[in-house]
## 1
Amino acid sequence: QLQLVESGGGLVQPGGSLRLSCAISGFTLHNYVIGWFRQAPGKEREGVSCITSSGVSTNYADSMKGRFTISRDNAKNTVYLQMNSLKPEDTATYYCAADVFCSSDYVRMDYWGKGTLVTVSS
């Protein structure tokens, strides 16, 4: 059974860092792209970043470029999202998703984790 489990969220002060993990089981990571999405209260889910099986990454929003970095470890079947210089507006539930192709449109991703909450506050 295909499963994605996010971890690493929590409370962090503005300017701080967090590394989120997405542990994948039930399928071979090599065959899929993995995307990170986030959803703030009252807002639509938005694409953060995506990484292909060969390690090519795409960041979807200018507000996160230079601060968020996606990476993957195929041997560990895990994808990471390193988040630096966090801002209060980064507060959201962060989800990882899998599919054959990357997309910033969440409706195009077939497999989802349950999310991990990131709160940026002093």
## 2
Amino acid sequence: QVQLVESGGGLVQAGGSLRLSCAVYGSIFSINAMGWYRQVPGKQRELVAAITSGDATNYGDSVKGRFTIARDYAKNTVYLQMNSLKPEDTAVYYCAALGVLHGPSDMGMDYWGKGTLVTVSS
């Protein structure tokens, strides 16, 4: 069983910063990519940032230049540093572990955290 534990959400004023963390626990051989997605009521979940096992990164257009994703391979943890936050960044942020292998010949599976709420006040 794989469990993703997110932390770091909360309330912040516009222009402020927050750092989200997500640790992956369980019997894991490797993780292809880790990322953060966000969702607001009535809208589809959207990519915020992702990082592959080769450290390639991908950001949503609305967060480029403000958010930074980083990964600690030893701890199976991914971080999202969010700067210059805007009210439109308010959402539930979900951590994802993508292409998780439990063994060398395993089929990759995706796992999701339960989400952490980020609220940016104007």
## 3
Amino acid sequence: VQLQACGGGLVQAGTSLRLSCAAPERTFSRYAIGWFRQAPGKEREFVAAINWRPGMTYYSDSVKGRFTISRDNVENMVYLQIDRLKAKDTAVYYCAAAAWGRTWNSERMRYWGQGTLVTVSS
């Protein structure tokens, strides 16, 4: 199973960015898709997740209000909109797939994408 994350780059603080994650249809229709990020020298952390069932989303408290996760069920894509970017958002962002659940951590994710680097300049 191959998830493909893209959309990262060098951006200025205060601007917006949208990351994309492409998943095979069989994965997209069976699993929730989550976004994680790993900043330099830090552990990977959960950011947001969305279930295949519309309306079911979950966010880390640290990103609520600035990050929006969404999905396109026709194109098998999941998006992460990041608004008002901050220097602390600098990280490699990964998308991953797992069954929907109450906890979101790296250990229970079943499939991973390769990551896309977001660098925020202040």
